[in-house]
Backbone:
């Protein structure tokens, strides 16, 4: 019984430390998961505004595009403006590999500015576990 109590205390103290570390982090990181590239401009403007508002506390801003929206990523007319804004505001854009596969998108046609990840939802959840602020659209 003593051993069980000791292990329980150890686990709880570890959890408490993790929550404390996240709450007291000087850096604010963000991730947005979207299924509509028409939302990219407002998302990127939000990144710009958060960078100004957060000042030196602003960290990473990542966008994950998944669902049918990935079919638009090979169309330069639809991506040119937001790729430029993403570079300007230091936003990293990811395309969900599952979605790319499901909708038969030729990844060789993706602009080099897009990074691909195997599973956009899983990646977003991983970032949330690291303390990222998250929104899904």
Residues:
């Amino acid at each position: 019984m003593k051993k069980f109590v000791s292990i329980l205390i150890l686990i709880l103290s570890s959890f408490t430390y993790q929550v404390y570390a996240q709450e007291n982090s000087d850096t604010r990181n963000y991730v947005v998961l979207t299924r509509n590239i028409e939302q990219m401009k407002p998302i990127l403007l939000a990144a710009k505004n958060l960078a100004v508002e957060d000042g030196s506390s602003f960290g990473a801003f990542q966008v994950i595009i998944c669902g049918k929206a990935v079919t638009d990523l090979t169309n330069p007319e639809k991506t040119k403006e937001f790729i430029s804004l993403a570079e300007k505001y230091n936003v990293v854009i990811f395309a969900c590999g599952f979605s790319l596969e499901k909708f038969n998108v030729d990844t060789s046609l993706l602009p080099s500015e897009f990074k691909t990840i195997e599973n956009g939802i899983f990646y977003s959840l991983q970032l949330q576990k690291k303390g990222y602020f998250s929104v899904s659209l």
Remarks:
- Confidence is low (pLDDT under 50) at residues 4-22.
- The first strand starts at residue 28 and ends at 34.
- The longest helix spans residues 2-23.
